[in-house]
Amino acid sequence: MSDATFFKNIGEYADADKYDLINNENWYCKYGYVPTTMYYVSLYGAGKTTMEFGCADGEYSLMYYEHAKPIKAYALSLFAEEIESAKQKLAMRGLSDALVEFICHDCSIPRQITEDGVDFTYSIWMLNNATNLTMLRNMCENLYINTKKGGKCLILLATADNLMGQLIDQKLHVRITDIRAVKDIDPATGREEVVGLVVDKSLMCDNPDAEGETFFLRDCFYSDNRVKATMESVGFTNFHQVPTLPLPTTEFGCPIEKAKFADQTHYKYFLADKM
To answer: Which of 7, 75, 140, 190 is the most exposed place for a label (fewest CB within 10 A)?
Structure first.
């Protein structure tokens, strides 16, 4: 998807029914971003050191660790309660922080966690929490200073289709409350253009356990060009998009044309080097 398409008609969802979405946690674990992340963590982190930025309650972090078997994994989250939950899950699996260390830290504040950095850093959704370009750069810098020389960094970016999909999900009632454009000099054109969107929304869940509960969320979407320029400005090289694992063609009615790569719809993966 081009940047022009990415930011065009964000408020119009007349064609939203063309997006085939399965908003189910088990689906994401089996076929969504989780197995793709596992693949790259295993490819670049097995037998090495890894660091995840934005680990939430650690459930996926532990899945990645158990699948990839790095010699040491670090995982960071802003919220103390999530880190506490992650540590409880760690203990329930009979693991210690000598193998997986959960750290409470604001990932938008650059901080070198280890003396030499790790072999592989990765961020799933973190950059979609950057509400301005300064925060975006700080997050990218955090990834850079914690990646050792010769290491690699993986990021996932949600696309506008991800937001559109939420708006047509039958299990969620989503209402956009505000959309703010982030303008800057587009590195591809040299002109001031919209390089990002900050979207405020409210979600009401139909889950019986959370009936009537409303969640207020903020998503931030940036163009590929802006993220590439920002990653390169902090020192990363060879920033390029990499494929996701193929989506299933037979389950959940997923059409064949959608079964090639998930990054054609709701999210994209990018890899970068630290030389």
So the answer is: 190
